[in-house]
């Protein structure tokens, strides 16, 4: 695609800056004008945006016929950050920009960078770039740990002895990261979306393309952060199992000693590695899970404040209200009865 502009309107450097640095170099110049070509990544982003828009015709979240795949569209920026628990997934943005905060740690994902979550994490998310003319367009592809584990084993088996020796690094990683989008990944994602046009392709081709997408994630520069959570000899894997246990049992009393024992660690080691992975202490994580679940029950299931508090493990309504307001910035009674605010 060729774009032309008059050299007496904007100098090339200014024009490139205005386009956010996405344009490639000036490839041809003449006395009265210059020509610039969109780089391949921008073309792929545009194709991906059009593919997503087809399945997200209005603002909202749209589940596709492929269980692991959902689309998101926002026509305006967020007025306030939204608290949400993200499951293990890859989030790919085709247009616009979004931020996710993990206990104050900020991650930005856009058409140039995708977001990966290796385990369930409580986040504060905010769409920062969107408009009616250029809406925020993204997709979420859930990651099945068993499929990821199979791929990691196969990739390691086929790796050269030199690369196998290099994997000895045992640093514990955060459970989420942002990585640079590639054309090969964009192409695979577009092909996955295109399978939605054919019921047979959804059943026969989509699983293969999902596997290909995971393969590209595992071959990226930051892939070790994803691999670590399915490698049983890694602390990340043990913490991930603990997080999954908390997810299923947070409504019950949970002791750090119990969780540490399940992870095969001492309480002090468990606390240390848990915070490295989640950026929160175990108690902070448990509290966050309970409060997120309670808010969901209040807003989506219309539960009373007392019932929601009890169902997520609180025995004191007053303590629940204090912690809820401190965490979300509003009293649970106002979420339960919006007209009061």
From TrEMBL:
Keywords: DNA-binding, Transcription, Transcription regulation. The keyword Transcription regulation applies. SMART domains: HTH_ARAC. GO terms for molecular function: DNA-binding transcription factor activity; sequence-specific DNA binding. Signal peptide: none annotated. InterPro entries: Homeodomain-like_sf, HTH_AraC, HTH_AraC-typ_CS, Tscrpt_reg_HTH_AraC_N. Residues 240-333 form the HTH araC/xylS-type domain. This is AraC family transcriptional regulator. It comes from SAR86 cluster bacterium. The lineage of its organism: Bacteria, Pseudomonadati, Pseudomonadota, Gammaproteobacteria, SAR86 cluster.
């Amino acid at each position: 695609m060729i774009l032309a502009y008059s050299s007496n309107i904007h100098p090339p450097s200014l024009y490139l800056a205005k386009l956010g640095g996405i344009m490639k170099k000036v490839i041809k110049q003449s006395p009265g004008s210059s020509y610039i070509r969109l780089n391949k990544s921008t073309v792929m982003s545009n194709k991906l945006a059009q593919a997503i828009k087809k399945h997200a015709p209005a603002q909202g979240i749209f589940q596709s016929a492929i269980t692991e795949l959902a689309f998101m569209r926002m026509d305006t920026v967020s007025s306030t950050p939204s608290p949400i628990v993200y499951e293990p997934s890859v989030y790919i943005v085709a247009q616009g920009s979004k931020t996710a905060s993990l206990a104050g740690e900020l991650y930005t994902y856009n058409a140039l960078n995708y977001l990966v979550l290796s385990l369930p994490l409580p986040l504060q998310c905010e769409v920062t770039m969107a408009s009616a003319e250029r809406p925020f367009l993204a997709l979420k592809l859930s990651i099945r740990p068993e499929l990821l584990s199979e791929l990691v084993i196969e990739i390691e088996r086929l790796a050269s002895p030199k690369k196998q020796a290099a994997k000895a690094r045992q640093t514990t990683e955060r459970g989420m990261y942002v990585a640079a989008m590639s054309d090969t990944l964009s192409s695979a994602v577009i092909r996955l979306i295109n399978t939605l046009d054919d019921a047979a392709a959804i059943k026969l081709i989509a699983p293969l393309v999902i596997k290909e997408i995971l393969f590209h994630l595992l071959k990226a520069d930051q892939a070790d952060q994803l691999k670590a959570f399915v490698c049983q000899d890694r602390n990340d894997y043990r913490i991930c199992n603990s997080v999954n246990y908390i997810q299923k049992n947070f409504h019950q009393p949970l002791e750090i000693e119990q969780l540490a024992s399940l992870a095969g660690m001492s309480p002090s080691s468990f606390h240390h590695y848990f915070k490295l992975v989640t950026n929160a202490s175990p108690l902070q994580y448990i509290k966050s899970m309970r409060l997120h679940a309670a808010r969901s029950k209040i807003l989506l299931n219309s539960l009373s404040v007392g019932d929601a508090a009890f169902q997520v493990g609180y025995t004191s309504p007053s303590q629940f209200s204090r912690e809820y307001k401190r965490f979300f910035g509003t009293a649970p009674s106002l979420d339960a009865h919006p007209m009061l605010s």
